[in-house]
Amino acid sequence: MTLARFVDPLPIPPLAQPVGERTHAAYPGRRLPYYRMEMRAFRTPLHRDLPPTPQWGYQGMSPGPTLQAQRGEPLLVEWINALPQEHFLPIDHSIHGAEREKPAVRTVAHVHGARVPADSDGYPEDWFTPGHSALYHYPNGQDAATLWYHDHAMGITRLNLYAGLFGAYVMRDPHEQALGLPDGDCDLPLALCDRLVGKDGKLYYPVSDDPEAPWVSECNGNAILCNGKLFPYLEVEPRRYRLRLMNVANTRFFNLTLSNGQPLVQVASDQGLLAAPLPRKQVTLYPAERADVVVDFAGLDGKDIELRQQGDAILQFRVRDRGRRDTAAMPTALNTIERTPPATAVRDRVLTLGEMDDAGGRPTMMMLGGKHWSAPITEDPRQDSVEIWSLVNLTGDVHPVHLHLVRFQVLERRPFDLFAWNATRTLKYTGPAQPPPPEEMGWKDTVRADPGMVTRIITRFEGEPGRYVWHCHLLEHEDNEMMRPFLLRARA
Ligand code: C2O
Ligand code: CU
């Protein structure tokens, strides 16, 4: 399929607007902005020359409207399931949580990277069906960062995101606002994903050759979408822009570059500002990772520049002077990031990322700590305690591992002897520990666990006690057992 490039303008999701104010028991005496986010089926073309694509989206669009939050100002969102009763993508009923007796269409919203009490975090089993809704509250007591919201329903998250259920959630705070980074219409979320798109415009989701168990371990498309369009263009002025790059794909990772060789100046990672701006020739993002970059188009008036994925165009910037100037200089320092000393950890949990052959003929299922989702909780940190999690990757693939509720730091990656592990369950290192690269020296909520490596992260478990989850963010893995609950126990 050869489609003309750069014929559709890049859609910029509108800012979500509150529909009113409400009180909430968790915030006595306050009136909070109240948003309604309705999940609806809709059709829109992914490209000028394709028929409209049936999709699902919050407020009938994908990405959904951008939720904007200010630090210290809580908000309420009523997530409403107004979807049809039937799914349009292939459900695998042999997967735990998606059995035949379960309703086909189930949704529950999660704000990825938000520190949210358990009752509003979107626990995968807290799903609800068409005609129902859930009122969630977001305290917003955390640093400015590019967060995102998406569906999290047990056993069908991969299909619900693939259908279009995601959007940006932008946290702001006064510290960041004082830095003079590009904002307003020069601050744009760019949600990147791939889809398998037919000539009929429809979304196809890959299936195995077993109709009783259609699950596949990865999902790769033939089209890369940026804010829901294929090869869009964006007119920009010769000044600086902040681009909030978000990998919202099921499986694909991105290696992003600019066609003119100009650096992407990274200012933030998953959980907010880096210590200092970091010019990068290429930005790699695994599923669910974010990077905020500043791109300066000054002096490029009249030029067309592409954002590329491994050499292929995703988005074209057309630099056109409209007479507006950008006078602020890039700050040399952005943030103070205190490294959490490993000695403050009360515990080092060794957790494997493994795969298991299923007797039922399914190729493999992935597991965390060798345990199924339904096994009793094993990760049970105490509130405010510091823990190290050592992620031992026993597979041949990268798994981007995400913990709900907390932000963490990457300590190191270290190669280990897989045979020694398999024989005696002991960690024998085969080389020195590798410190994280500069782009991983800020706060993260999703970390690449590389094959053959022990990836160690450190986190303080701040937040309200309750039950949360951690999982691989390859959505096919997450849906098929590569997800575990964790329990935050109240401080002693
Ligand atoms: Cu991006 Cu558990 O989620
Ligand atoms: Cu995985």
Described by its quaternary structure, the protein is single chain
Q: Which class do the helix and strand fractions yield?
A: mainly beta
- Round the mean pLDDT to the nearest integer and report it: 96
Query: What small-molecule ligands were found?
Result: CU-O-CU linkage, copper (II) ion
Described by strand count, sense and barrel closure, the largest sheet is: 8 strands, mixed
Supply the CATH architecture of the largest domain.
Sandwich
- The percentage helix is under 10%
Portion in beta strands = 35-45%
At the first level of CATH, what is the class of the largest domain?
Mainly Beta
CATH superfamily of the largest domain: Cupredoxins -  blue copper proteins
Q: What general form does the structure show?
A: globular
Specify the number of helices: 4
**Gyration radius, to the nearest Å?**
22 Å
Number of domain units:
3
CATH topology of the largest domain: Immunoglobulin-like
Count of DSSP strands: 32
Low-confidence stretches: none
- State the end-to-end CA separation: 61 Å
Secondary structure: elements and pairs:
Elements: E1 8-9, E2 20-22, E3 32-44, E4 53-58, E5 64-70, E6 75-81, E7 109-112, E8 133-138, E9 145-151, H1 157-163, E10 166-172, H2 174-177, E11 187-197, E12 203-204, E13 223-226, E14 229-230, E15 232-236, E16 240-247, E17 254-258, E18 264-269, E19 272-280, E20 283-285, E21 290-296, E22 304-309, E23 312-319, E24 347-356, E25 365-368, E26 386-393, E27 399-403, E28 409-415, H3 418-424, E29 446-449, E30 453-460, E31 466-472, H4 475-479, E32 483-488
Parallel strand pairs: 1-15, 3-6, 5-10, 11-16, 15-23, 24-26
Antiparallel strand pairs: 2-3, 3-4, 6-8, 7-9, 9-10, 11-12, 11-13, 13-14, 16-21, 17-20, 17-22, 18-19, 18-21, 22-23, 24-25, 26-30, 27-29, 27-31, 28-30, 31-32
This protein binds CU-O-CU linkage and copper (II) ion.
The site of CU-O-CU linkage (C2O) has 10 residues, from strand 7 and strand 31.
